[in-house]
Amino acid sequence: MNVEVAAISTAEEESKDTLRRILNALGNRQSFKMEAGAGAGKTHSLIDTLQHVLQNRSQFLPRDGQRVACITYTNVARQEIIRRTDGSPHILAETIHGFLWEVISPHRKAMLEAIPSIAGWAKHLEEITSLTGYSVSYDLGFRRINEKIISLHHDDVPALAIHLFANKKFRNLVCDRFPIILVDEYQDTPAGLAEALLGERTSRPAQVTYGFFGDHWQQIYDKTCGSIDDLPLEHINKRANWRSSEAVVRFLNKMRPELPQAPVSDAKTGSVTIYHTNNWSGPRGTHSKKSQIPDQAIKETLRWVTERTQTKNLDPELNQHPKTLMLTHSSIAAELGFESINRCFGRNEDFVRKNDDIVAFLLDVVEPCCDHFNDKQYGPMFDLLKRSRPRMRNRSDKMAWAELFNSVNAARATGSVGDVLDILLKQEYFSVPQAVVRRQQRWEFALREVGEGQRLTEPRRLAEFGNFRDVSYQEVVALRAYVEEKTPFSTQHGVKGAQYPDVLAVFGGGWTQYNFTEMLANFQSRHGLNERDRKRFETSRNLFYVACSRARFDLTLLFTTELPQIALETLQDWVGHSNVVAVEFSPDGTPVDT
Q1: pTM, to two decimals
Q2: Where are the beta strands (DSSP E) in 303-356?
């Protein structure tokens, strides 16, 4: 047997052995944790487990109506599990909030008893002496009491579940319905939930068997559990890396020697190259951007590094723009040209996730409708406008629709967001969403109240709307391309679970929660850090690891803040001196080849 076949056999045997250990734990009703680094195939093992349970349902789900619960972190992951298990009725695939609401919602009385002790409810209950007769809803996602209905915030659902799971009778009721509960990306579950789910381990026959699949080095969200090594779980490790090239795997192993991985036999050689900007001689940033080179210099350096990354790859199939990962949406906004939109909104979610009604209307309705009109696809255009195809009784009817969209297109090209909205709000051919109409009306009324020539500063929504109206509409076009992933840019948070042929990860400032240079400087002495510094170290380390483990072939890192010598030595140890490159700058501040 040649070496390549042997290596493939080893990786495949490890996957089979992992599944054997998981099924043995399930058969013995022993809860377990499967820890696997990036690219190890955690989801593949999870799906294999679900399919085996379905094939042996009488053994694992002996009673009618029983199901396996599979808890995911995102709706995307939930849909993927449903797809890969053919939508089996014997599996409940849900997000963590969806599953918890499923099991706690029938217990209204217990929830009402617990709500006063949940953080954030005291001010809402100041004038209420008793919750008897109230109902509980989880439709709005924010706290509210209205007409004997208590509406829960997203954070309230796991908090209530933790409270209810402390009750043995409640855990038994859950077990009756879901004798097996598998948790994907366990490290992202709310802190304290895993302990609550497991509960007391004395009455084993009445307990659910839990399987936790994940990687505590990929914990990148606040208020989540991270490592659960202290819980009574069988530990199952998976060490093959099915995603990355040999060079990337070597780099990850240097960073994480506690869980070494092995590339599969057909992995490409790949490369890891690190660029730093220590030779920048001009002024650097302060505060959250401490020691970072200026924004314009970052743009120029990023273009220079991107060009070098592309030209070094001689394989035409791989010689594409690398996926570029940046820390903040503001960094990407500056690069892609929607920085004014970023400045308008206090919360990134409002424009990136389209939580704002105006942004959602422009990106989900106006822009696609203009595309359809320009492509003469009038049927889909009318569908998006939620209007049956209007009868074109004469030529003037067609001309009127054409004039409307021609005027919208002209405003999109050279006008502001307000110019486009004013055209749409005045036309009578289709209905604009009431949320958009009401925002405009409230803004106009509030503007009259503050007086001529004044700008609104509050309330926040109306002030943001006024600022957004003044933005060039071309920034909306740029934002749409980013939101719909038609650009090579993403945030480092936004790519967890994804993979790309080539990755260029940019590490700089802009967010006080992360300090990558400090993390690298402390890497060799990490075991001696105090509790506070250790948490800060792990926060930056985990995001760094997630960003660096997305690449299948070539990984490039660019540091835009100054690296201390000890951090440089750490990187040189990980990839070799020749792969750590100092960017040289000309007198005008642009990178130059040496």
Answers
A1: 0.85
A2: 323-326
